[in-house]
Amino acid sequence: MKQVSLLLYLFVFVSVAQAQSTETKQPPAKTAAKSAQADLELKERRAKARSLLVSLSTDARTFHDQTLRARSLARIADALWQVDPEQGRLLFRKAWEAAEVADQESDRKLQEEISQQKTRTGGRFAVNLPPNLRREVLRLAARHDRPLGEEFLEKLRLQKLEAATTTANLRPGRLQEPLAQRLSVAQELLNAGDTEHALQFAAPALTIVSMEGLNFLSNLREKNPDAADSRYSALLAGSANNPQADANTVSLLSSYIFTPHLFVTFTGNGMSTSQSASKITPASVSPELRAAFFQTASAILLRPLPQPGQDQSTSGVDAKYLVIKRLLPFFEQSAPAAMVESLRGHLNALNAVASEGARNRDEESLNRGLKPESPAADREQALLDQIERAKTSAERDSLYIQLAFMAANKGDMRARDFVSKIEESETRKQAQAYIDGELAKNSVNKKLTDQALELVHKGELTQIQKAWILTECAKILAKTDREKALEIVEEAANEARRIEVSDPALPQALIAVANALKVIDASRVWDATFDAVKAANSAEGFTGEDGEIILKFDSKGHSSINTNGVPEFDLEGIFRDLAEQDYDRAVELARGFQAEGPRAVATIAIARAILEPKKKK
């Protein structure tokens, strides 16, 4: 019996082993079959997505809103390009035609508004410039087809430019609109990693010293230092021989080496700065390139002053005086001694003819980007000392506003205490709303959930602000305290429902709730998005994109507008995610939008989810 049992055991063992061996040989065939099936399904989904976009493009050509028509056609073309470039090119041309009409209409309305304001105020006006739709179409088209981008640029050059934009471009160091657009497109190509095409597109604009051009070269230097330095060297050579080059030219050129992304220019009325990066780090250029800058800069700055009434420069005496004063420490560190002495002598000569305002220019503002700022504690104490000496409540209010803004920028809750000491009630109310909004944003960014929640319950915040802060806090807490995160999402939904039914902020807040539920409880996302769609159909003016929170403060002597983009309010992200879960269901949900704008945004997002799938981690 033992022998029989042993034989049976061996038979079973061998049979199982053979079965396992057979199974191990099957997966390659099964894997190939599954892969083929997956490829077939993906091809079918991509065909559906293409058909969805083509159908939307037919509708978009009849949209009454020319702005929506131009944007929708351009975005459809962008999404279609990789599967149907010919159709994409056709739609880009249709988008350009719509953008031309929309820009002309926007310009007409802008001029009417300016005229009306001048009539009311006796000549003064303040307006928000409308979106430049041709620029939006140009950027998307040039990303795919350089010749098409060049064609649109040439059309833009020949067309009449917007009066308000043209005026803005006459500031020192700014390019005219077509060249600025060219660099904007080149920057997008550079951001996408296409350095070669970015340089080709930017080339015509890199022969002029401008903020846009130097900013592009500083960005290029991070990817290709040799190419950037070569083009900067060419700018130096061209400037040295250019009779129109002046102190502002030198100041702009200095930024590439000493203060990348920070530009300082001067006019007869004062000083202007422009900064496009939070941190300013000097470029590590070769001694030869630095010497070339010193040579060009000194040649321009040491030119004799023109005769009275004949100065054609953008700067004047004051600007030359201030530029030399600002840059002299760098000459003293590295330039030849004879060059330094010449500049010192010229500075002394200019001191006799420069205005009192230039001679008394605040050193800290003049040296911005070149030297560290005074410690925050010192600046705070200086303001507190001034408050002690203030003679009127208006002076004290002004100083407390400065203290509050300084503290809020650091996320310091003492900013609220400073605001409470403002005596004028309307100013205090405005400042409280601005400061609480700024503190809440900083708290979310630093993931200080307790502080952010305290501001929700005690601060002067709107319902849309509270909804956003609560949903962001819920996402932060999702991993460590899911129950509390769910409670906070419910609170956010309740805050959203307090918003007026006709207010576009209501669907925005509900979209933020849906985005939070993606992280905390994905099973509820579809219902939450459906609620947002219903709310959108009752909210006139809801577009489904460009979500933002705007903080405004305006009082005598102080004015600030802080615009913060909030993608959690937009349809694109949530509909992309829903499409990846269930394409057909997402399409049906998007069709629930009654307005053309949000329906187009959601539909394009769904198609992109299929045509441009996210890379798996």
Q: Would you give an account of this structure?
A:
- There is one protein chain.
- The chain is mainly α and 617 residues long.
- Among the domains are: 173-370, no CATH class; 374-443, no CATH class.
- Helices cover 69% and strands 5% of the residues.
- It contains 29 helices and four strands.
- Strands 1-2 form a two-stranded antiparallel ribbon. The protein has a two-stranded antiparallel ribbon with strand order 3-4.
- Helix 11 packs parallel to helix 13 (287-301).
- It is globular and about 80 Å long.
- Residues 6-10, 12-17, 19-24 and 160-170 have low confidence and may be disordered.
Largest sheet: 2 strands, antiparallel
Total DSSP E strands: 4
Q: Given the C-alpha coordinates, what overall shape results?
A: globular
Q: Would you tell me the overall average pLDDT?
A: 85
| Class by alpha and beta content | mainly alpha
Put simply, the count of helices is 29
